């Protein structure tokens, strides 16, 4: 039996798992997909919001502000790239200038410093912004992080400290017995004393399994354009329009790896799984983004994507022990700023459990994750030395993002290692560039099959149904990459 079972391995479930490994507990994480970070945590704006914006009375505001401050130290421990680049919210008329002042006051109440900027000051920082602007609000503590890297790193470190991860394991039902819960999955049953529902868009469904119909989650879709890297930065800050009742609006932001995101749209949708993009919403994104920057170079666009926000009926985070089921905790309605708040949510949940259980510290907890070798960050001399020691770092598999065979083997062999093509892509960006995997995908399949010692035909793109190879078309024989 496990002391704690976490349902869902998004950024929230993984952050909670890591936080719990600081105590002497037997922990399991059940995830229905083939990898961690496959749902909302994978498809968002990747912004670590400063926290000036949420209503001060909400849990969102409290956990956003605390969470933002935790990023520097935890990203250092986990070797995850994080930049505090700052955000600018831009006003284009007098009414919006008033909104900036209100946002500043709201920020002060939340404990977040911001600075009002004149149009000249905004343009000095971001010369591409429309000359129609009337002013801006700078939030210097806003940051960007790679959500896949963060989620994988949290789980890898949790596993290094003893957590067990069960992938491709969908929770189908839950039974309550005297002092434990029996979790019925598509694979087998798991028993746990404490259960934490971190199922994102499906957290309402998990709550229903124990008879709680009070958590109602509606998916609200957001669609984006992704732009390629530029020689000179296209923008250096996250640029927000003034928020409306639909949310933060269509923003333009750099990512930690030098791409740019433009979006998201914001429309309720019926289907939590539906992350398709459509011409109508993308046209809306273009139309809104044009107000911030009139000449966005869409000829550098490399793809579009969509993610679904898990919007609860309270429009706030729901983090509580179930009123009727003791030791069953819900962490639901974690919409934006859920990524920015994830580390603080984890502390908050563990404090709640500690109050009830009096947890005992794990003296062996190691917060440090083994650093990743990132070839494209090394000097030529460092690269030469590395390749002399291990020639696999000299074989470039992804030419767009410069990812070597050595890095891919490392990403497969770690705890919470890559098992799918998308798993390699999320951890290392192989397949993220201009060709979107056109060159590297067959090589990635070959490396995955070799390292996992399985048939290449069984390698999936992402989910369990996404086969890439259906049957052989040629006899085995040499090929251009036979040394891989
Ligand atoms: C368009 C958009 C933009 C956003 N931008 C930002 C931003 O810039 N900054 C920010 O702070 N936040 C942002 N967010 C919000 C942020 O992405 C989420 O708050 C966060 O990712 C939620 O994480 P989670 O772990 O709760 O959910 P998820 O990542 O959805 O994880 C839930 C997991 O539970 C699993 N699961 C579900 N049902 C079951 C089951 N029955 N059995 C087993 N497993 C199950 C799912 O497969 C999934 O992996 C944005 C969200 C969207 C959609």
Small molecules bound: flavin-adenine dinucleotide
Count of alpha and pi helical runs:
12
Number of domains: 3
The coarse silhouette is globular
Q: Describe the sheet with the most strands.
A: 8 strands, mixed
Q: Supply Rg.
A: 23 Å
Q: What share of residues are in beta strands?
A: 15-25%
Helix content: 25-40%
Assembly type of the chains comes to: single chain
Mean pLDDT: 95
CATH architecture of the largest domain, by name, is 3-Layer(bba) Sandwich
Unreliable segments of 5+ consecutive residues: none
Short description, anyone?
With 484 residues, this protein is α+β, with helices and mostly antiparallel strands.
SSE diagram, text form:
Elements: E1 2-7, H1 11-20, E2 27-30, E3 47-48, H2 59-78, E4 82-83, E5 87-91, H3 94-110, E6 115-117, H4 119-125, E7 135-139, E8 143-145, H5 147-160, E9 164-166, E10 171-177, E11 180-185, E12 189-197, H6 203-209, E13 217-227, E14 238-241, E15 251-254, E16 260-263, E17 267-268, H7 279-292, E18 301-312, E19 318-321, E20 328-332, H8 338-357, H9 380-389, E21 396-398, E22 403-404, H10 405-413, H11 421-428, H12 441-452
Parallel strand pairs: 1-2, 1-12, 2-9, 5-14, 12-20
Antiparallel strand pairs: 3-8, 4-8, 5-7, 6-7, 10-11, 11-12, 13-16, 13-17, 13-18, 15-16, 19-20, 21-22
Bound molecules: flavin-adenine dinucleotide.
């Amino acid at each position: 039996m496990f002391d704690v079972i976490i349902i869902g391995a998004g950024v929230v479930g993984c952050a909670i798992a890591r936080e719990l490994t600081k105590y002497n507990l037997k922990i399991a994480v059940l995830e229905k997909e083939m990898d961690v970070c496959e749902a909302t945590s994978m498809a968002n704006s990747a912004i670590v919001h400063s926290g000036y914006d949420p209503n001060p009375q909400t849990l969102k505001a409290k956990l956003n502000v605390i969470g933002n401050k935790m990023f520097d130290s935890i990203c250092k421990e986990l070797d995850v790239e994080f930049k505090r680049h700052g955000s600018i919210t831009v006003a284009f008329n007098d009414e919006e200038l008033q909104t900036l002042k209100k946002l500043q006051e709201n920020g002060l109440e939340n404990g977040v410093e911001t600075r009002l900027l004149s149009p000249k000051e905004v343009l000095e920082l971001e010369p591409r912004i429309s000359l129609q602007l009337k002013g801006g609000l700078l939030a210097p503590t806003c940051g960007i992080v790679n959500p896949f890297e963060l989620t994988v790193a949290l789980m890898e470190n949790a596993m290094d400290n003893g957590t067990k991860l069960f992938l491709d394991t969908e929770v189908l039902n839950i039974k309550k017995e005297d002092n434990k819960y029996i979790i019925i999955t598509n694979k087998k049953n798991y028993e746990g004393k404490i259960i934490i529902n971190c199922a994102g868009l499906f957290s309402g469904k998990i709550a229903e399994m124990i008879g709680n119909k009070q958590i109602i989650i509606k998916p609200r879709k957001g669609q984006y354009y992704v732009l390629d890297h530029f020689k000179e930065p296209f923008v250096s800050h996250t640029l927000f329009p003034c928020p409306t009742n639909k949310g933060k609006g269509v923003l333009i932001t750099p990512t930690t790896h030098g791409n740019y995101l433009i979006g998201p749209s914001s429309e309720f949708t019926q289907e939590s799984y539906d992350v398709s993009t459509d011409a109508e919403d993308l046209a809306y994104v273009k139309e809104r983004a044009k107000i911030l920057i009139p000449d966005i170079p869409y000829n550098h666009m490399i793809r579009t994507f969509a993610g679904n926000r898990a919007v609860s009926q309270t429009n706030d985070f729901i983090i509580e022990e179930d009123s009727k089921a003791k030791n069953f905790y819900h962490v639901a309605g974690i919409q934006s700023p859920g990524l920015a708040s994830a580390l603080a949510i984890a502390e908050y949940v563990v404090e709640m459990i500690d109050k009830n259980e009096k947890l005992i510290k794990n003296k062996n907890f190691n917060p440090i994750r083994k650093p990743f070798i990132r070839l494209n960050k090394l000097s030529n001399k460092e690269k030469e030395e590395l390749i002399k020691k291990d020639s696999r770092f000299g074989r470039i598999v992804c030419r767009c993002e410069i990812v070597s065979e050595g890095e891919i083997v490392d990403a497969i062999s770690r705890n919470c290692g890559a098992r799918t093509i998308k798993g390699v892509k999320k951890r290392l960006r192989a397949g993220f560039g201009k060709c979107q995997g056109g060159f590297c995908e067959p090589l990635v399949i070959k490396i995955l099959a070799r390292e996992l010692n399985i048939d290449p035909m069984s390698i999936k793109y992402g989910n369990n149904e996404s086969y890439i190879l259906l049957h052989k078309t040629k006899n085995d024989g040499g090929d251009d990459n036979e040394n891989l």
